[in-house]
Task: structure prediction
Amino acid sequence: MYHRFNENKYPSTNIKMDMFDEQMKIIKNQGYEFYDPKNFLNEFDKVKKSKKILITIDDGFKSFYNEAWPYLKKNKIPFILFVSTEPVGKRGYMTWDEIKEINDSDIGYIGHHSHSHEYLIDKTEKEFIKDIETATKIFKDKLGYIPSIFSSSSSACPKAKLENKNTGANKRKIFRTFRSFIHLKIIYIPPCLYIYTYIYTIIK
Result:
């Protein structure tokens, strides 16, 4: 999971491109395949015959478009770009035209990353649903469809907050809220130090 590229003033979410290049080479040299997001949903619960890694990019920062996108395109590495709709076009973020460029490519897949990118566990159920549905309407208007994979971030919350919120009760709250307006097929909760991400599939 990546965020910013060559933005050294944001060390907690940034990666230098030479390090990113090295990581991509390690993946290849270790015999892993880059997982095409277009196959991810259909094959998620199937036994894998080969080692695969899914590359994900969060937030749609301009540095991804300027730095990593040319690299991924040149090397034909597939990925998911999770977009929060509220900051699109603002300073430091990609525009809808740039997001559409990714969407129209053979390797880029757009993911649903809420509207506000706020810590949704702290929201009421009504606020939670409104945030997701706002983004859903914007995606439908701008891209012509609703992304099938959803990722909700804690907005890089502190570790202490993570430990307080990472409880079964909060996970059940998330599940119940999503189940109230979409068919929830997959929940993926990767372990990470500062980022707490839920990935869901939204079945249209």
